[in-house]
Amino acid sequence: MKILFFGDSITDAQRVRDKVTFPNSALGFGFVMQIAGRLFEKSPVDYEVINRGISGNRIVDLYARAKIDCWNHEPDLISILIGINDIWHEVERQNGVEPDRFERIFRMLIEDTKERLPNTKLLLCEPFVLKGRATEEGWDKFSECTIYAKIVEKLAKEYDLYFLPLQAAFDEAAEKYGGEEFLFDGVHPSTKGATLIACEWMKLFEKIEEDMKK
């Protein structure tokens, strides 16, 4: 099974683009690498994992590079995590993507992907945020992440796609241990945060594998 992860810096996690010279770094150091490890533990030959996250991306950026970085690979499963930069870019440089445009372009990405790859499964991950050094000052705006999360969940339901909730898990972990333990700046996961994502992702993946065997 070929699995492609599509997203921003949370997915990217400083992956090395030259996978020939640096094959062990091609997946980055984030949740994608952790998921790959769990999959390869199950079978070292039955899974291929591709990381196509790019730091700073918004939904408009994913749509712009969908063909070269996603469709051309013809994956069996595409996992998408996007949304926080659509807010962050607005806070920092007034170049964000408003909720209505976010939904419109995400819808285009889904429909075009389903048309190009009708047999490919899509998994939409809920965008998340916590109060931290990068988000506290503009928290009124960053807290709108819930709006984007609801859009992602709505689209998953509308198109009968898999949806991975994450905000509640981060909220619970933050309340118990402190948010900076999991999202060190309020946005980017620490190793503990990446582990949280990987654990939740693998739970859903078990259902996806069962569905694909039917």
Give a short synopsis of this structure.
With 214 residues, this protein is α/β, with parallel strands linked by helices. It is built from ten helices and five strands.
Fill in the keyword field for this structure.
214 residues; alpha/beta; 5-stranded parallel β-sheet; 10 helices; 12% strand
Structure explained in plain terms:
- The protein is of the alpha/beta class.
- It has ten helices and five strands, in the order βααβααβααβααβαα.
- It has a five-stranded parallel beta sheet, with helices on both faces.
- The longest helix is centred in the C-terminal third of the chain and has 23 residues.
- The protein is globular and about 45 Å long.
- The mean pLDDT is 96.
What is the average of the pLDDT values? 96
Spatial gap, N to C terminus: 15 Å
Order of helices and strands: EHHEHHEHHEHHEHH
Q: Largest sheet, order of strands side by side?
A: 2-1-3-4-5
Strand content: 5-15%
**Overall outline:** globular
Give the topology, please:
Layout (H helix, E strand, L loop, with lengths): L1 E6 L1 H4 L18 H12 L5 E6 L5 H6 L1 H4 L7 E5 L2 H10 L5 H18 L4 E5 L13 H4 L2 H14 L3 E3 L2 H11 L13 H23 L1
Parallel strand pairs: 1-2, 1-3, 3-4, 4-5
Helix pairs in contact: 2-10, 6-8
